[in-house]
Structures are given as structure tokens and as C-alpha cells.
Design brief:
single chain; 284 residues; alpha/beta; Rossmann fold; six-stranded mixed beta sheet; four-stranded antiparallel beta sheet; 8 helices; 26% strand; globular
């Protein structure tokens, strides 16, 4: 299979020796990985990174640490500092992550009950340095692109499931900038709403090449379809043969390097990868 033409430049996310414990119990340990800015010839291409693994292996805890909602026991999480970014993608400045730097969307797609879609998006941009008119213009552009223009003055209870999802994702993206984390965004959704979330991923990726989506899922085929990089999180096997009690990254699959990223068809190579990922998950 021919590889798509792309190149990788500076780091947009660096995680080094990350561990997190609660009340003396280690939940995740020794997690290190780097996400690079991917530049695809002929199009704007952000990064999409999937984390897969069995339940209780620490994916949600990892996400809370990556978003700054939890302070790690050891290690560091650094993301690109857009305030100091001068357009040089080979040397992107990094900063330690803090709460609010990364948008975090949970499975419930929680929205303000008493705010319309437009009001919620304006509130999301409250810390922005843009003028009120610039905020309004930016929100209008996103409402149009995300198919929410006709419901801009409606409240959450008046929205369809797909509209709620897109509003929640867009709200977090506008508040945080270039990073968004989605914890099990496809859990319990019907076919139509799954397509709605997939469209949201494409909108995020296509609007800025530094935009980075990190998501977890139990659906291996969805991970392969949407991500350009996949990490398997699980309990490592000890020398005794038993599984450790903490989660860590067991395997990394770079779909770009494998020539499987951004494919419009799910072929035999994708199916073989799905089997390999499933085997790694079951063993952990």
C-alpha cells in the first residue's frame, strides 16, 4: 500500500516518565511518548492519537494527567505554547500543561443547561484576548462549519444527540486552543451519532495543523479508521508471569509510518493490525 506523503516536524506534546498514584496505589507508571506536528502535502492535517485498552487499565487517569486535571506523582507533560509560537514548526516551544490548557470532553457531553449554544461558546472564550467582535466572528465561522448555525439560539434540551456532542466538543476546543481529549466519545452511540463525532474529528484536524485530538475507545476498528497513531494501554507482565497492578503503554503503532493512516478503505492490512492490537489488549 502506497504511503501518503507527509513529514513530521517539532513536538506538540511530550510526556516523560509519567506516573500517578492515589492513596499509595499506583494507577499508571513509566509512561513516555511524543506527538509530532504532522504536515501532509496538499492539506491541513492535525494529529489524531487513539488510546486503546481493556477497562480499568488507567486510560481515564492518563487523560486527566494529560489535561492538567491531575498532578502526576512523577514525570512531566508538556504541550506546545501557542503564546510563544512564531510559525516555525520545526522548533515549537513547549510548556508544562495546566488545567484549562487542554479541552476535556467526557462521555456525557456535559453542557450548561441554561445557556444557548451561542452563549456557551462565548463563555468558553471568556479568557481569549480577542475583541468581542472577533469572538463573535470566530464563533459564527465555527457554527457554520459544524452545522450548528440553525440551532445557535437553542438550549441543550432542545438539541439532538449529535448537536449536543458537537457543541460540547466545540466548546472545549474554543476554550483550550489546539488540544482536545475525548474519553470514550463513541460509547453507547448509535450509527448516526458516531458519524457526527467522526465529522467533528475531521473538522478539528482540518482547521489547523497543530490541532491534536487524543481519544480512547474500545472499538479497535474505529481507532484504526480515525487515528494516525495508536497506543495500547494495559497492565505489563512481570518476570513472574503475573500482570502488574498498574497501567502503562505496552505498544505503539504509527499508522503513518505503516502506510495505513488517512485511508478511505479498511483493507487486509488494517484487519491484520486490528488482530495484533486485540492480541496485545487481551494479554494485558
Amino acid at each position: 500500500m502506497a504511503k501518503s506523503s507527509y513529514e513530521q516536524r517539532g513536538s506538540v506534546l511530550e510526556v516523560e516518565n509519567l506516573s500517578l498514584s492515589y492513596d499509595g496505589k499506583t494507577i499508571i507508571k513509566d509512561i513516555s511518548f511524543t506527538v509530532l506536528d504532522t504536515v501532509k502535502v496538499g492539506s491541513t492535517q492535525g494529529q489524531t492519537v487513539a488510546f486503546v485498552g481493556r477497562s480499568g487499565r488507567g486510560k481515564s487517569t492518563l487523560f486527566r494527567a494529560l489535561s492538567g486535571l491531575e498532578q502526576p506523582s512523577t514525570g512531566t507533560v508538556k504541550i506546545c505554547d501557542m503564546g510563544k509560537f512564531n510559525g516555525d514548526n520545526a522548533h515549537i516551544p513547549l510548556k508544562p500543561v495546566h488545567e484549562g490548557d487542554v479541552g476535556f470532553v467526557d462521555q456525557k457531553y456535559t453542557l450548561f443547561r441554561h445557556k444557548t449554544v451561542t452563549q456557551a461558546l462565548h463563555f468558553a472564550m471568556r479568557k481569549s484576548n480577542l475583541s468581542e467582535q472577533e469572538k463573535t466572528d470566530k464563533i459564527n465561522v465555527h457554527l457554520e462549519a459544524w452545522g450548528l448555525k440553525n440551532v445557535r439560539n437553542q438550549y441543550p434540551n432542545e438539541l439532538s444527540g449529535g448537536q449536543r456532542q458537537r457543541t460540547a466538543i466545540l466548546e472545549q476546543l474554543l476554550s483550550s486552543g489546539n488540544f482536545i481529549i475525548l474519553d470514550e466519545p463513541f460509547s453507547g452511540l448509535d450509527v448516526g451519532n458516531i458519524e457526527s463525532v467522526k465529522k467533528a474529528f475531521n473538522l478539528i484536524n482540518g482547521s489547523h495543523e497543530l490541532n491534536t485530538v487524543l481519544f480512547s475507545t474500545h472499538d479497535i476498528e474505529l481507532a484504526i479508521e480515525l487515528a494516525d497513531s495508536i497506543y495500547v494501554v494495559g497492565h505489563p507482565r512481570l518476570s513472574s508471569g503475573e500482570l502488574a497492578a498498574h497501567g502503562t503503554i505496552l505498544k505503539h503503532f504509527d499508522l503513518k509510518e505503516m502506510g495505513l493512516a488517512w485511508s478511505t478503505e479498511f483493507n487486509g492490512e488494517h484487519q491484520a493490525l486490528a488482530k495484533e492490537i486485540k492480541t496485545a489488549m487481551l494479554a494485558s
